[in-house]
């Protein structure tokens, strides 16, 4: 086959165009820091990057749920601590009221403080976070304790609130008022009635109920603490998994800069060599001079 001058030019231009396209792809990988800019660049790698990206988003949602649960439990623990302090003060008052030397007026003053403590505990039981009541069970839009009754009436339920903290793994985040706070309010109400009756024997008999309510309150706090510890361990595990997932996604989709720069230099060298070779191959012919 006879090779013409035009064929040489066409071949040169075709090769130069291909070389420039390869240089452009490598340049884009370097400047964007992404090895894959379109699925056709690497179909398998693209599928891997998409799968790992989805996994990272899922882990991020679990982490958000863990933080939400932790906040709820921290606020619950603070409220229970405040209630515990009020209950401890109530016990001190009941011990004081049981003293046979106190007068009826003295016990009336203690009754008034016990009444204030009872209201304070119920008010604490009505703590809310982001418009949702902590101790109302699943009735988070309902104020759990009705302060217009004596003792305050519980209007929540016993349902547990849960958060998904991993695939197929949930954790209870709430303490219901009927298990932790109602016994406290009941014990204080009974102690108030005994103080109001000015009966030292009856007053002393209420200490056991107060201690039992305190034990139940401490059990609720211990449960909260155990769940907080579990959340902390889960958060650390999720953070490790998130870091590993992002690293794998980076390895699959990000540019290896050293390798890319080496390839770009090679393509650039090839392009320059092709230009030089082409310049020699398509020198003006004798006919061009005769025209």
Write up this protein.
This protein is mainly α and 291 residues long. The chain folds into two domains: 5-33 and 255-290; 58-249, Up-down Bundle (f41 fragment of flagellin, N-terminal domain), CATH 1.20.1330.10. Helices cover 71% and strands 6% of the residues. The protein is built from nine helices and six strands; from the N terminus they run αααββββββαααααα. The chain has helices at residues 5-32, 43-97, 104-125, 177-180, 182-196, 200-205, 207-253, 257-281, 286-290, and strands spanning 128-129, 132-133, 145-146, 153-154, 162-166, 169-172. The strands form three sheets. Strands 1-2 form a two-stranded antiparallel ribbon. A hairpin with a 6-residue loop joins β3 (145-146) and β4 (153-154). α2 packs antiparallel against α3 (104-125), α3 (104-125) runs antiparallel to α5 and α5 packs antiparallel against α7. It is rod-shaped and about 125 Å long. InterPro entries: Flagell_FlgL, Flagellin, Flagellin_C, Flagellin_N. Residues 207-290 form the Flagellin C-terminal domain. Keywords: Bacterial flagellum, Cell projection, Cilium, Flagellum, Plasmid. Belongs to the bacterial flagellin family. It is found in: Bacterial flagellum.
């Amino acid at each position: 086959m006879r090779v013409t001058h035009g064929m040489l030019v066409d071949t040169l231009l075709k090769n130069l165009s291909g070389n420039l396209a390869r240089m452009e792809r490598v340049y884009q990988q370097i400047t964007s820091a992404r090895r894959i800019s379109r699925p056709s660049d690497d179909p398998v790698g693209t599928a891997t990057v998409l799968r790992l990206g989805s996994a990272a988003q899922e882990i991020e949602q679990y982490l958000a749920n863990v933080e939400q649960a932790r906040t709820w439990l921290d606020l619950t623990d603070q409220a229970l601590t405040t209630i515990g302090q009020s209950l401890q003060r109530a016990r001190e008052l009941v011990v004081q009221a049981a003293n046979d030397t106190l007068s009826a007026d003295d016990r009336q003053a203690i009754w008034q403080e016990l009444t204030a403590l009872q209201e304070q505990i119920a008010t604490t039981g009505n703590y809310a976070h982001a418009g949702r009541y902590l101790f109302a069970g699943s009735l988070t839009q309902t104020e759990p304790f009705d302060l217009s009754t004596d003792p305050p009436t519980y209007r929540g339920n016993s349902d547990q609130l849960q958060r998904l903290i991993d695939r197929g793994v949930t954790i209870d985040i709430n303490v219901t008022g009927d298990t932790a706070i109602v016994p406290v309010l009941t014990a204080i109400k009974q102690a108030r009635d005994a103080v109001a009756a000015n009966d030292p024997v009856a007053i002393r008999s209420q200490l056991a109920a107060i201690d039992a309510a305190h034990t139940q309150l401490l059990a609720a706090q211990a449960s909260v603490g155990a769940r907080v510890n579990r959340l902390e361990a889960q958060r650390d595990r999720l953070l490790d998994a998130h870091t590993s997932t992002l690293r794998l996604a980076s390895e699959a989709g990000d540019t290896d800069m050293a390798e890319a720069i080496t390839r770009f230099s090679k393509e650039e060298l090839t392009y320059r060599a092709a230009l030089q070779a082409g310049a020699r191959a398509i020198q003006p012919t004798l006919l061009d001079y005769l025209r």
